[in-house]
Design a protein that fits this description.
Length: about 300
């Protein structure tokens, strides 16, 4: 491991790790909560890789780091949960950064979720992002059919619970009004905050935020931005998430199609403009999908620091 990634930050005391408390503190400061997202390495969990990425991200002083629900190599829900929780524990214990562990409820049972929750508590994980998860052709829906079911369950277990929000609507939900209804139902079930799906056009985010507030959604919302690195990545995200592709990005992709280095730089710059505009608009939080690339996270944080838009 690169020795520069080693952190001397002490682990945050229990209670100060709860992300709901972080939002409350930052609302008094007038600056958005700033966070990153990483994913466990595919296949067998490599702690050295996770420590290297996590250590470099910790040096940028995010308010929390979320850890996605890994495929875990074998495709089993149990192994995926273990990979996610292991990285979340490492972030908190080794680098002192509050962690948000993703957890899905598709294709699993209450008995298994009970075991996962006990494991998370034993490892000091207090924050969980409750998700339905992807449905496969052979998916089995047991007691937990939707994210809202998982939210209520996790609240009863004593966790600080985050939930997903979709500025352009979930890919399985074509009705914009129903999209806000689902958001409100997650709040009513006990969610503490929201983190949005990625988007490439801030006007959609602002329209979504205005409608959510008008319909009684009062929880803090962090808006997720992913710097695009390649044409194939953008195409994959558009089809997976249903995100709209604005003309400026189409022009960037066409202009730098044969220059991957310049395209990556242009993608980071575009994301920085999104984030600066979101911060200036007064959103509750900024969430950066880092793709496990500390250099991308570093470039974004430097831009925000230069504008004094987040905690230094």
């Amino acid at each position: 491991m690169d020795t520069q990634t080693t952190s001397t930050t002490a682990a945050a005391p229990k209670g100060q790790r709860r992300i709901a408390n972080i939002y409350s503190a930052f609302q008094t400061l007038g600056k958005p909560v700033f966070s990153f997202e990483i994913f466990p390495p595919k296949g067998d969990l490599t702690q050295e890789q996770a420590a290297d990425v996590g250590g470099q991200l910790a040096q940028l002083y995010p308010d929390f780091i979320s850890v996605t629900f890994s495929a875990g190599g074998s495709g089993s829900h149990g192994r995926a949960a273990d990979a996610t929780v292991s990285v979340a524990q490492l972030l908190q214990d080794q680098f002192g950064v509050p962690a948000l562990a993703h957890l899905t409820c598709a294709n699993t049972t209450r008995e298994h979720l009970d075991a996962v929750c006990e494991d998370m508590k034993a490892r000091g994980i207090e924050n969980v992002l409750a998700l339905r998860g992807d449905l496969r052709e052979d998916s089995e829906l047991h007691e937990f059919r939707l994210a809202v079911d998982l939210i209520a369950y996790l609240k009863d277990k004593g966790f600080c619970v985050g939930a997903a929000a979709y500025p352009e609507g979930h890919i399985d939900c074509a009705d914009p009004r129903a999209n806000i209804d689902h958001l409100k139902s997650k709040q009513d079930a006990g969610a503490d905050f929201f983190v949005t799906q990625l988007f490439f056009q801030n006007s959609y985010a602002y329209a979504f935020l205005d409608e959510a507030r008008a319909r009684g959604v009062t929880l803090p919302i962090s808006f997720g931005v992913m710097p695009f690195m390649s044409k194939s990545q953008v195409q994959r995200m558009v089809f997976m998430c249903g995100a709209s592709l604005p003309s400026p990005i189409v022009k960037i992709l066409a202009h730098y199609e044969n220059d991957p280095v310049a395209l990556e730089q242009a993608g980071v710059e575009y994301a920085c403009r999104q984030l600066v505009d979101l911060a200036a608009h007064g959103v509750d939080g900024l969430h950066v999908y880092t793709m496990n690339r500390p250099a991308v996270a570093r470039a974004v944080k430097q831009e925000l620091d230069a504008a004094s838009l987040v905690r230094g």
